[in-house]
Amino acid sequence: KMDDDDDIPQLSSHALAALQEFYLEQQQREGMKTSQGFNQYSVGSIEEDWQLSQFWYSDETASCLAKEAVLAAGKGGRIACVSAPSVYQKLKEQDGDDFSVCILEYDRRFSVYGEEFIFYDYNHPLDLPENLLPHSFDIVIADPPYLSEECLQKTAETIKYLTKGKILLCTGAVMEEQAAKHLGVKMCKFIPKHSRNLANEFRCYVNYASGLD
């Protein structure tokens, strides 16, 4: 009879050392984050999870979209970020008193942001907390996680439920027709950039006179 242990794949000592080093680095990074002076709202403070199709905007793009959102929302405005956490982080970094913001996001790591975090799964577009009243946001910024009509259509239901009217959508250039169809938004001149280059060309779409042209 063969030894049962033979079936269990063993990591080479080299692979094991590499793994330990990786975990150690990760711990140190996390440690740095919690230590003095770390801004939990800075873009990239929560790392991208590619399995969730997450790609953060470049700092410049996040700033530009956040600025646009504040202007569009107006004084005392309410802003909803749907699957657009890097814009949410930028808005929080500005720490403005004259607007409020919510983040609707599938990734529960963002629950560190407390009450402003709302768990959101685009497959259930209207499965939202009762205190999230219809048409209670001056602007909704959304970046659907997948470039598919189904994902856009479902996210569009959420956007239309939340917004008083203004919509800022970020998605692929290939979605132009569907974006017009489901949300009545038009492409802007502004080209959003990501911290890592994506294969698909990305664009912004709005349904109001924005500063992104």
TrEMBL record:
Molecular-function GO terms, alphabetical: nucleic acid binding; protein-lysine N-methyltransferase activity
Q: What is its main location?
A: cytoplasm
Q: Mention any Pfam family matching this sequence.
A: N6-adenineMlase
Keyword flag Transferase: yes
Q: Which PANTHER family match?
A: EEF1A LYSINE METHYLTRANSFERASE 1
UniProt entry keywords in alphabetical sequence: Cytoplasm, Methyltransferase, Transferase
Cell location = Cytoplasm
Q: Which Gene Ontology BP terms does the record give?
A: methylation
**Domain of life, per the record?**
Eukaryota
Q: What is this protein called?
A: EFMT1 methyltransferase
**GO CC, any one term:** cytoplasm
What species is this protein from? Irena cyanogastra (Philippine fairy-bluebird)
SUPFAM superfamilies per the UniProt record, alphabetical: S-adenosyl-L-methionine-dependent methyltransferases (SSF53335)
Q: Which reaction does it catalyse?
A: L-lysyl-[protein] + 3 S-adenosyl-L-methionine = N(6),N(6),N(6)-trimethyl-L-lysyl-[protein] + 3 S-adenosyl-L-homocysteine + 3 H(+)
